[in-house]
Amino acid sequence: MVYDGILLGLIVGLFRGGFRYGLHQFAALKLRGGWIFPLLLLAQFGIFFLQEKLAWVASINGYLFAAVYITGLAFLWLNRHYQGFMLIWIGVLLNFIVMAVNGGRMPVSIEASAVLGPYYVDMLREGGAISKHFMMDASTRLSFLGDIIPLSNPYPRTQVISIGDVVMNVGIFLFIQYMMVNRSSKAVQATETHQA
Amino acid sequence: MNFIRNLIHKADRSSMYVVLLSCAGIGIFLYLNKWSYFRLSTDEWVMVYTMLGAALILDYFTFQIPPKGNQQSMDSSVYLACIFMFGGAFSLSVLLPVSLILLIKDRKLAWWKHIVNFSIYSLMIAGAASVFTWTGGIPGALDGYNLLPYFAALAAYFIINTITLGMFFHFSTKDALQQMKRVFVTESLLVYLCTLILALVLTILVVHNGVLGLLLYLSLSILLSHAFKQLFVMYQSIEEKANTDQRTGLFNHSHFENMLESELAIARSQGTPLSLGLIDIDDFKKYNDRFGHLQGDSLLALLGDFLNRKTDGSNVTAFRYGGEEFTLLMPGMDLDQAYAFMNKLRKQLNDTPFEGVEVFPHGCLSFSAGVARYEVDMYNKSQLVDQADKALYYAKKQGKNNVHRHGSNDGMEHEIDLVQDVRDIEQQLNLFRYKDMDTFKHSKRVYKYALDLSELLELDNVEKRNFVLGALIHDIGKLEIPWSILNKKEKLTAEEWETIKGHVTWGKKMAMTNERFADLIPYIELHHERYDGAGYPYGLKGCEIPRLCRMLTVIDSFDAMTTERPYQETKNMGEAIKELQMCSGSQFDPELAELFIRYIQKRTVQQQMV
Question: Are B381 and B264 in contact (CB under 8 A)?
Answer without folding.
Answer: yes
